[in-house]
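Re: weekly structure request thread

Next one in the queue (699 aa):
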Amino acid sequence: MGKFFTLIIVLIISSQLVIAQENYFDHTIQKGENVYMISRRYNVSPNAIFELNPGSRDIIYAGRTLRIPTANPPTGNTVINDNQVRNYEVKRGETKSGLSRRFGVSITMLEQQNPHIIRMLQAGHIINLDKTIKEETRVAKQGEHIVIKGETLWGIARENGISVAQLEAANAGRLSEFLQIGQTLTIPDNDYEVVNDGEYLVKRGDTKFRLAQRFNMTIAQLEEKNPHIKELLMAGHVLDVDNSAGNSIANTEEETSNSDNSERIISEGDYKDYVIQPKETLYGLARKAGMTIEAFTTLNPKLLVTVNTGDIIKMPKNVTQTVENTNVTANNTQKTITTTNSNRNEALYDNLDTETANGIYFYTPFSSEELSSPEERDRMVNVNTDFQKYIDFFQGAQIAIDSAKALDLNFDVTLIKKNIARTQLEIESPTKKNAILVPFLDNASHYPKFQSNEVISVIGIESNISSKDSLKVYKSVPSENFQKTKTLNYLAKQNANVIVVSDLDEARNKNLILNTIPKAQFLKVDKAGFFDADDLDKALSKDQLNYIVLDSDKTIILLNSTTALMGKLSDHNIQLVMLKSSLLPNQSEVSDMRYRVLKLIFPAITDPRNRKGVNDFIANYETIFGTKPSRFAELGFDVTFDTLLRLSQNSSFENTVNTVVSEHPHLKFDYQKINDTSYSNSGIHLMQYNSNEGMIELE
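Done, posted below.
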């Protein structure tokens, strides 16, 4: 019965596909366009486009191709051709950068011929362009700056002796996520008044959620007072955050005391020195102080790096020095992360050495002082936005450090600031076993030679590093090559017909596939993801299982290819295969029903069935940092915590790597020895969608 139902669905989809292949032309989707806009441009109905392009009803992507049914050309006064744009009406969501790419001109030329958009581009503006007119050389007027390649807000502000906040305030409304080459900025006087009392200037990285929390409002109240941010919150927006009218007597005393806590305890004489006790964690100390993590670390910035027993910090006066029951409760709460997967890591938990001290080092662009200072972090991120992933990584690592302390593990934490001028770094360690974590070091970065008086292991986190001298390097994140190899090795063991589908003349992984499966066949689809029907029929086998390996990262290719394959299920045994997990679109883009019908096989770094472990980490991270963790924060927790567990064993770090497979919320650590000084994590889950059991792990 189920098979018959599936066949009906497939026949319906296939019938639509046949109709859609009659008469059409291709349209390349521009940034800011949607199906309704495109349908108006070509004078066709949106439904006609939906029928011809399965999946476009849900979402479309800039740069990809839509098939447009043949119809009369668009009517009206709008003209867009090679040399002229006339009477083009700007749509909501469009940007100068997007329009410049669409019309094939620079932003400078766009503004030169349409001076009404220099201050701000708005929906409803009319754009006219004559592309035969030569672009004028722009000269900045007094009080202006024209952006050139490589400039940042921070650099421009420093050059003109003003703050970034002043620069953003003076250019509110014209700043988007990135500076644009040729963009004109207003340079205010250095005494430019940023905001008045009861106002707030939005900075890069601010969110409505965090601002609502900060000013004791709901997001709805924040938007009601500031309707200009309903569509989009932007750096440079000035917000009305005067909440005095809302802070009526109806507010409870508890709410008032909590919201004012971070301000109250900073007053001199309202806090005292506190000595950190053994086993105390950042989470537990903040709870003891009755403060949020953010407020507590603002008061004690060094706690952002590490919590060291014996350090003296600031604590509200009403907190006693003795270790109270509240601290025990906090430690127990913090253990939720560490115990979530303890049953998967019994070999590590059963042999923990809590007496011997170990050392863990981080090799990063930040010093401990810079990481502890919110101002320095913001400054460095303004200079290089790539630094944000290091901050996320350390926030995840901080949870791992607290979790390890809750297990009574004994270790010291040290940051080593990256210095490309130094070819050698000497580490004088007081502990016998040590590890240095090296996150996100690319080929262009200088990787120094580490020398240590004690044993030290180098843990790479998405870093292109190799062993130097006798130090052993452990690459902690499974590479895409491991994902592909594991999947292909599984296919090679089955008695199956393997067909590789690609949108390129030469499949991306052709050599790797042929080395493992010499008889694999290769099919090419067109830009919209359609097969040549005869080629597909010839490649499929009716006597064998057919594995269809999709070697493309385009969602439209996935949608249209799987539609065609489902149309063949009545006569063929077909399963879909992807060689790496990053090829799977989000569920918002593609329903997993297609995967279930075609029993998709794919490699996964994170076990998709371990939702509890992942959700526990997300909840803990949001409690501490007030935002959802990024992938870099997830790496920070898993790699740091696994490293600390392995360092704290009775045997050597290398011995635990050779004998113990561990698994945490996001990563499985199954190291394979590559050579005498190198190991790589091969912890891959090979998963298969199954209509009866949801999802199963193969092998």
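Residues 2-20 form the longest helix (19 residues). Residues 4-22, 71-76, 245-268, 322-340 have pLDDT under 50 and may be disordered.
Next request, please.
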